[in-house]
Specification:
single chain; alpha/beta; 12 strands; Rossmann fold; 232 residues
Length: 232
Amino acid sequence: MVKALAVDIDGTLTDKEGRLDTEAIEALREAERKGIQVILASGNSLCVVLGLRYYLGCSGGAIAENGAVIWYKGRIEVLGNREVALEARRILVERLSHIVRESWQNPHRYADFAFVPREDMPRGEALRTCREVLKELPVVVEDSGVAFHVRSREVDKGRALARLCQLMGLDLKEVVAIGDSEVDAQMISIAGIGVVLAHAPPEVKALATYVTKEAYAKGFIEAVRLFVLEDG
C-alpha cells in the first residue's frame, strides 16, 4: 500500500519553462487529502524547499540539496560533507568563473553547491570541465537539468529518502518516487515504485518501474493518478 509520495520539483512539478503547474499542485493536494504524505525531494536549498512545502500543503518530511540535507518535524540533518563541498566550491569559483557562475542559493546551502554554465558555454563541455577540475576531490558533479550540483560522494536522494523513511516510520516499499534527471536516479531505484518522466535521460529511464507517456508536470499528474490516486 502506498503511504508516501517522494517528488522532485524542477521539471517534475513544473512545465518546461520551470513554472509550477496548477494541475500538478492539485494532484499533489489530492494525494494529501487521501492520506498520502508528500515528500519534496529537490536540489534546491532547504529554505526554498520548506517554503514550497508550506504553500503546497505537504505533510511529509523534506529532502534538499539532492540529499545532502533532510528535514523532519523541525529537525535538520546534514548528510553531506560540508568541508569537502566548500573546497569544491572554492576551486570552481577561483578557476572556472569564466565557464560557470554560482547559483544565487549558494550562500544559503549546507553541503551541495550549485553552478550554472555561462550563456556562451555549451552545457556538456562545461560539465566535463567541472568534473575534470574536481577529479581529485571525493565529490560528484551532476547535472539536474537546471544546474550543476557539487557534493560529497556519500550522499544522494536515495540515501536521504532511506533515512527520512526511518524518521517517518515508513518502509521504502510504501513510497512512490517521481523524478526526471540523473540526480533522481538513486531515489527512483530505491523506492517501492520508481517513476521517471518522459523527458528524462535514457539511463534514468532504465531504472524506472514506469516511464510516463507525458513529460514534465503532465507526466507527474499521469503517474499520481495511476499509482497513488487509483491505489487500493
